[in-house]
Amino acid sequence: MAEQTGNLTFGIIKPDAVRGGKTGNIIQRILDGGFKLQGMKLIHMTLREAEGFYAVHSERPFFGELTEFMSGAPCVVMALEKDGAVKAWRDLMGATDPAKADEGTLRKDFGGSMGENAVHGSDSEENAAIEIAYFFSQLELV
Predict the structure, then answer these.
(1) How far, in Å, are 4, 82, 89, 125, 135 from residue 7 at the CA level?
(2) Which sequence spans correspond to the domains of the chain?
(3) Among 61, 91, 98, 142, which residue's Cβ finds the most Cβ atoms within 10 Å?
(4) CATH fold group of domain 8-43+74-140
(5) What is the pTM of this model?
């Protein structure tokens, strides 16, 4: 497993993209972008699990809608490895609003709205470690 700082990040292929049959295309773009999959699984979060994962946003007005959406259908969680992984993954994802995302980014190509924007990614190395640990045991990371 890659342990060097800056080499791992966390990503989710959100329920809208999984439901829309985009999982394979997104995974191929991730691999084409030079990432290695260190862990990946299809899950269906409970509302409580989604609330725990997004607890940092619990006071925000969109919290209920976000957790309902994320627990409403299966998603794919991933531990991704690449030098400068957090920035590289955020660059590949694109802006939160697909309408404002750059051409060729995942959110531009697969996202439908601010709320249903196909993918999630960690915003820092510290949060990547926390988010990976939320969904993966050490045995599940290769």
Answers:
(1) 6, 5, 11, 9, 18
(2) 8-43+74-140
(3) 98
(4) Alpha-Beta Plaits (3.30.70)
(5) 0.94
